[in-house]
């Protein structure tokens, strides 16, 4: 009976957007959602955000994870059977633990890769990073200080952006650690993700989105329009000023 229920609730193609903070995840997920062919890749398994999505779909993420998983898979998949989710490296272990604890996706000693494929049919991974590590760190530092993570969305500003080299150092180290964790995850599970960068996405938005479609074997109709970015670029003159100040400071030594 469980197998039949899983087939009923599960889509036919799943993917995980494995992003590093401030690498263009909002930009890419906006394009994928707007296509109506690539699911709605949001952070369904984020510790703080799961309750938000549980409320949206009338589910209980805390007390009934299996129900939550099936409900999200059903509710957030597009009509062509594609389900996507965005996930941070530090949320992977928790997701795996909850899948094991549910007892619904195989024996307790099932390999991590097999467990994930049991929960997410035909799971494929897309890795999103950023080549310009300094501007990535500056973007994260500014967002941390102001609470403005996505330009144009409603937000409550909690502070003013002020140049803080120690905070930028911290953000650089955080991004490096996130990339290390993703590399460890892909290596131990013998996964070959589609590797994309923020710079590629900015330089060729429709072409990069098309690469994702090709990777997932999604075939849009002949008259499909790839559209334009739905997220505003946040880098500005202040970003450049901070980048120059940071480099000058670090080059001058302790």
**Secondary-structure content class:** alpha/beta
Largest sheet: 4 strands, parallel
How many angstroms does the end-to-end distance come to? 65 Å
- The CATH superfamily is P-loop containing nucleotide triphosphate hydrolases
Tally of contiguous helical segments: 11
| Oligomer class | single chain
Question: Strand order within the widest sheet?
Answer: 2-1-3-4
Task: Estimate the strand proportion.
Answer: 5-15%
Radius of gyration: 19 Å
Kindly state the percentage of residues in helix. 40-55%
Question: What is the CATH top level name?
Answer: Alpha Beta
Could you please say which CATH topology applies here? Rossmann fold
Give me the CATH architecture, please. Answer: 3-Layer(aba) Sandwich
Low-confidence stretches: 1-7
Give the tally of β-strands.
Answer: 4
Give average pLDDT, whole number.
Answer: 89
If you had to describe this structure to a student in words, what would you say it looks like?
This protein has a four-stranded parallel β-sheet with strand order 2-1-3-4. It has a single domain, classed as P-loop containing nucleotide triphosphate hydrolases (Rossmann fold, 3-Layer(aba) Sandwich). The model is unreliable at 1-7 (pLDDT under 50). It is α/β, with parallel strands linked by helices and 254 residues long. It has helices at 2-9, 25-35, 50-57, 65-76, 89-102, 112-119, 133-146, 165-188, 198-203, 205-216, 237-251; strands at 13-19, 82-87, 124-129, 194-197. 52% of the residues lie in helices and 9% in strands.
């Amino acid at each position: 009976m469980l197998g039949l229920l899983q087939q009923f609730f599960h889509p036919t193609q799943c993917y995980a957007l494995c992003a590093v903070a401030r690498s263009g995840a909002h930009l890419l997920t906006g394009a994928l959602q707007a296509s109506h062919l690539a699911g709605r890749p949001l952070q369904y398994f984020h510790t703080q955000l799961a309750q938000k999505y549980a409320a949206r779909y009338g589910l209980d993420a805390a007390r009934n994870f299996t129900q939550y998983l099936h409900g999200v898979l059903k509710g957030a998949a597009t009509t062509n059977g594609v389900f996507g989710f965005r996930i941070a490296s530090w949320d992977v272990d928790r997701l795996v633990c909850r899948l094991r604890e549910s007892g619904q996706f195989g024996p307790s000693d099932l390999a991590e890769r097999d467990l994930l494929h049991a929960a997410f049919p035909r799971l494929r991974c897309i890795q999103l990073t950023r080549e310009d590590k300094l501007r990535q760190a500056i973007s994260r530092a500014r967002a941390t200080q102001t609470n403005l993570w996505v330009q144009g969305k409603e937000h409550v500003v909690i502070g003013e952006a002020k140049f803080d080299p120690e905070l930028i150092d911290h953000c650089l180290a955080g991004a490096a650690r996130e990339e290390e964790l993703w590399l460890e995850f892909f290596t131990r599970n013998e996964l070959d993700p589609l590797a994309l960068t923020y710079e590629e996405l900015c330089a060729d938005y429709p072409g990069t989105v098309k690469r994702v479609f090709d990777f997932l074997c999604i075939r849009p109709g002949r008259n499909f329009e790839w559209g334009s970015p739905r997220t505003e670029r946040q880098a500005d003159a202040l970003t450049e000023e901070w980048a120059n100040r940071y480099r000058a400071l670090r080059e001058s030594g302790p």
